[in-house]
């Protein structure tokens, strides 16, 4: 079984498993709360499910005073058969030490216990590989440490692996000879943010969750303690106000501050209050003895002064604890002092806001100005925080000013990728009594930030349209979002009508962004329907010409233009269009629509057989989802499923796809739902599950039935014909094939024709027309070769090889499989390589299969292991996952009845180089 790593610790887990695979020793070192024990338990669980014996102990501080406690815990689950093989005298000593026999009152001989435990371990590792897992190594008792150290020095590495965890700064009694020390550092934000948001009970959005993660220094325990404190309070955190600090750190900081003189305490608090504290700033803020005060604080372990005059706290939480320790009135006074000396307008505005608890238009105006400055600098997240504080400081009498600032907050939040916060800010305006123009702006902000969920916002779209019509003024943006809503629900006629009206109204009003967004919907729908859209595409290009300031609208247009190329097999043109969009996003700092561009770019790369590039694009898409809340979050998850289908595990890809499909159905995006179901059906077909493919493809067919036929629908019908024919439902397959032939009134892409031929071939073979099937597959393969689409070629050749095998034409089948293997290897599609290896094995006569028990991939893995490569090096050289290497080696161990890498090398070192 492959290791299931802890989120955010995949690389560390893979490194540990690679070291332990050779009977190595690993020591995990990290600060308290950093997650050492979680990683250790995850790896221990995986090891426990593999052949061999895994022994665990988790000593605590009180155990360190009692002899042999760790040994007793560690050997508690050792089967009795191992003890029974010890000589009687040795057995007695061992059982007394492990409390498996009532004590006699005589003092145990330490050397006798050491020798006895050494003999026991030797018997155990002779029978099976043994792994010792010890958490909190600093609490191992002295007696156990002496025995284990004695044994480990004499057993050496090999069949006895050791995994232990140690708190940073501690000196363990038990030294692990030859151990590799690995640091368990801060948890990445992408793994920590979702957990923090869940622990806070919905009271924090992504931005506050990221602030909590930064404050915790990536320490999971600290971050979850802060989130839990927020959840207990039941109050949503206010920008600028301190977050809860873990109790033990707060207590520690109070104790250290109490040791300082009053003036030093004031200086340290001022340093914690300032955003960028320096010695000069503290002196200007009324701390004349700042250098001496900071020296005292450094000796107390609170903060330090570096050579450039900057004040640095050892951990972000120490600074937060110092700030939170000061009474509110003291904090306000310190902010007031800093207002007088701060030169940065953003810092000064923040201090002004926190220097008073009253609504004040002067403060609100200063914060608004600072927010606009931050927005111009591209710091949308900072701008959102500042304008949110401005709204809080706006007097109740200025309702319009408050609403305007909340709408600016929604806009900045959207630009920063904080969709939930954008909807919340705009929703607050809708819930208040404000003039109709402000309500219209709020409706637009809600619809803009709805993302994937816009398909189910029928009531909100209707309400926005009603308010726009009541005002008697054309509102192109409202109709744009109405068109997006209809397109997501596959109401194509309504979508085209609204989008066409919006494009004309926006053109009349000179609103280029609105016109582009409307054209984007027209292009999207017409492309889906297979209708010509050259006129709209030309108009969009005219609007884009020479403009670099159109943001998301430009990205969406480039995406649709690229999709039209992709749909018609013009992959080079699609790639160029998408790269242009990526450059625009990079130059302008645009994130809206970027997930659509990156996903289609990855699909183009997969289609062209550029697996390594596709994986890099998917990784970038994942990072985007960490940094912001993408509008199409389900698309990001789907990209991961696509990568898994190509380079990981097809069953795992199917599992991920089913989860994404369920989430897509919940938000009502029927357009994406149809596409996802279509692709999942294709994966199930390749996996040899036609019945499951029929079910999901039929669902996709129902969603698009009644719409004009385009290339994507042709591909769907081809897969549905193939699935029904493979499942034995020939009548249904013939009916669908007739429907597919009925689409020939419009030109089909080369790939769509190849897919139809592939489907016809499966049906022909099922009807007994074998030669027709081979001819059709040969023609389809030629089309795929000409297009340069190795994954589609693989599907065709796999079917052709299966037919040739059934005709007992093994040579022809082998040639087809070899070509398919070359195509998959060149494209980096490792799942295809594994499937083809199994098909090659089926061609071998039964009596010869014992002579070639390994797949080509397994042979390559064995060859590298024989040469001394670690699991990690094997994975790197073969461009596969470390978990794939581990799973393959486990299978090989069982197949050849061996138990370690040493035995594997001995078993295969005499194999000739052709096999290896």
From TrEMBL:
What are the HTH luxR-type domain coordinates in residue numbering? 847-912
State the UniProt keywords alphabetically.
Answer: ATP-binding, Nucleotide-binding
What name does UniProt use for this protein? Answer: AAA family ATPase
Superkingdom in the source lineage: Bacteria
Database matches in Pfam families: AAA_16, GerE
Q: By its UniProt entry, which SMART domains does this protein fall under?
A: HTH_LUXR
Organism in which the protein naturally occurs: Micromonospora rubida
The family database entries (PROSITE patterns) matched by this protein are listed as: HTH_LUXR_2 (PS50043)
In terms of PANTHER family, this protein maps to: TESTICULAR SOLUBLE ADENYLYL CYCLASE (PTHR16305), TRANSCRIPTIONAL ACTIVATOR DOMAIN (PTHR16305:SF35)
């Amino acid at each position: 079984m492959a290791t299931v790593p802890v989120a955010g610790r995949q690389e560390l887990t893979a490194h540990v498993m690679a070291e332990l695979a050779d009977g190595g020793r690993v020591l995990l070192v990290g600060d308290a709360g950093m997650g050492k024990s979680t990683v250790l338990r995850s790896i221990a669980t995986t090891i426990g499910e593999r052949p061999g014996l895994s022994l665990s102990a988790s000593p605590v501080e009180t155990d360190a005073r009692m002899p042999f406690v760790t040994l007793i815990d560690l050997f508690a689950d050792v089967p009795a058969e191992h003890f029974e093989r010890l000589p009687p005298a040795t057995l007695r000593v061992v059982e007394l030490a492990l409390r498996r026999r009532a004590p006699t009152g005589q003092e145990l001989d330490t050397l006798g216990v050491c020798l006895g435990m050494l003999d026991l371990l030797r018997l155990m590792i002779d029978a099976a590989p043994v792994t010792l897992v010890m958490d909190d190594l600093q609490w191992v008792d002295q007696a156990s440490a002496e025995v284990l150290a004695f044994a480990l020095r004499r057993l050496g590495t090999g069949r006895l692996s050791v995994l232990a965890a140690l708190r940073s700064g501690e000196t363990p009694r038990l030294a692990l000879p030859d151990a590799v020390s690995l640091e368990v550092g801060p948890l990445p934000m992408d793994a920590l943010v979702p957990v923090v948001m869940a622990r806070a009970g919905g009271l924090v959005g992504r931005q506050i969750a990221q602030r909590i993660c930064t404050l915790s220094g990536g320490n999971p325990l600290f971050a979850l303690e802060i989130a839990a404190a927020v959840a207990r309070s039941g109050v949503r955190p206010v920008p600028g106000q301190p977050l809860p600090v873990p109790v033990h750190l707060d207590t520690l900081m109070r104790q250290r501050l109490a040791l300082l003189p009053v003036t030093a305490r004031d200086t340290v608090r001022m340093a914690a209050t300032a955003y960028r504290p320096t010695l000069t700033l503290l002196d200007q803020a009324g701390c004349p003895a700042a250098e001496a005060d900071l020296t005292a604080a450094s000796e107390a372990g609170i903060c330090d002064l570096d050579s450039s005059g900057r004040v640095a706290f050892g951990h972000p939480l120490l600074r937060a604890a110092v700030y939170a320790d000061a009474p509110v009135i003291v904090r306000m006074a310190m902010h007031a002092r800093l207002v007088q000396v701060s030169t940065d307008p953003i810092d000064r505005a923040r201090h002004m806001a926190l220097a008073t608890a009253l609504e004040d238009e002067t403060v609100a105006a200063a914060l608004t100005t600072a927010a606009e400055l931050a927005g111009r600098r591209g710091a949308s997240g900072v701008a959102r925080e500042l304008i949110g504080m401005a709204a809080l400081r706006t007097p109740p009498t200025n309702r319009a000013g408050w609403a305007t600032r909340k709408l600016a907050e929604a806009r900045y939040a959207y630009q920063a990728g904080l969709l939930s916060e954008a909807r919340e800010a705009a929703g607050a305006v809708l819930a208040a009594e404000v003039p109709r123009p402000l309500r219209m702006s709020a409706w637009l902000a809600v619809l803009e930030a709805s993302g994937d969920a816009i398909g189910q916002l029928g009531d909100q779209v209707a309400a926005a349209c009603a308010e726009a019509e009541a005002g008697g003024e054309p509102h192109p943006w409202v109709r744009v979002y109405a068109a997006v809503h209809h397109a997501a629900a596959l109401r194509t006629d309504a979508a085209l009508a609204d989008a066409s009206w919006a494009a004309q109204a926006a053109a009349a009003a000179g609103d280029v962004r609105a016109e582009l967004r409307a054209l984007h919907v027209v292009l999207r729908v017409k492309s889906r329907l297979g209708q010509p859209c050259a006129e709209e595409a030309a108009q969009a290009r005219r609007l884009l010409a020479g403009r670099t300031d159109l943001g998301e609208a430009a990205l969406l247009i480039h995406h649709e233009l690229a999709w039209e190329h992709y749909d018609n097999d013009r992959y080079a043109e699609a790639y160029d269009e998408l790269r242009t969009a990526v450059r625009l996003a990079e130059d302008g700092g645009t994130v809206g629509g970027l997930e659509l561009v990156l996903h289609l770019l990855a699909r183009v790369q997969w289609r062209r057989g550029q697996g390594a590039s596709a994986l890099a694009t998917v990784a970038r898409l994942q990072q985007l989802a960490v940094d912001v809340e993408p509008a199409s979050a389900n698309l990001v998850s789907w990209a991961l499923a696509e990568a898994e289908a190509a380079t990981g595990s097809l069953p795992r890809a199917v599992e991920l796809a089913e989860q994404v499909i369920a989430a897509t159905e919940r938000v009502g995006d029927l357009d994406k739902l149809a596409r996802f179901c279509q692709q999942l059906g294709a994966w199930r077909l390749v996996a040899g599950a036609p019945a499951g493919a029929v079910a999901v493809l039929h669902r996709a067919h129902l969603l698009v039935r009644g719409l004009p036929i385009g290339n994507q629908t042709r591909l769907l019908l081809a897969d549905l014909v193939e699935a029904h024919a493979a499942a034995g439902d020939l009548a249904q397959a013939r009916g669908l094939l007739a429907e597919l032939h009925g689409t020939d009134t419009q030109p089909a892409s080369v790939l769509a024709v190849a897919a139809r031929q592939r489907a016809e071939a499966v049906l022909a073979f099922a009807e007994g027309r074998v030669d027709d099937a081979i001819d059709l597959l040969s023609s389809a393969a030629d089309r795929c070769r000409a297009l340069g689409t190795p994954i589609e070629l693989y599907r065709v050749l796999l079917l052709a090889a299966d037919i040739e095998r059934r005709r007992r034409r093994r040579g022809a089948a082998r040639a087809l499989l070899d070509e398919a293997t070359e195509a998959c290897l060149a494209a980096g599609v490792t799942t295809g390589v594994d499937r083809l290896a199994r098909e090659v094995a089926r061609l071998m006569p039964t009596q010869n299969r014992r002579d070639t028990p390994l797949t080509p991939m397994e042979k390559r893995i064995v060859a590298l292991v024989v040469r001394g490569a670690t699991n990690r090096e094997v994975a790197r050289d073969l461009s596969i996952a470390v978990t794939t290497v581990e799973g393959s080696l486990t299978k090989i161990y069982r197949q050849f009845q061996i138990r370690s890498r040493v035995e594997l090398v001995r078993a295969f070192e005499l194999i000739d180089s052709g096999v290896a």
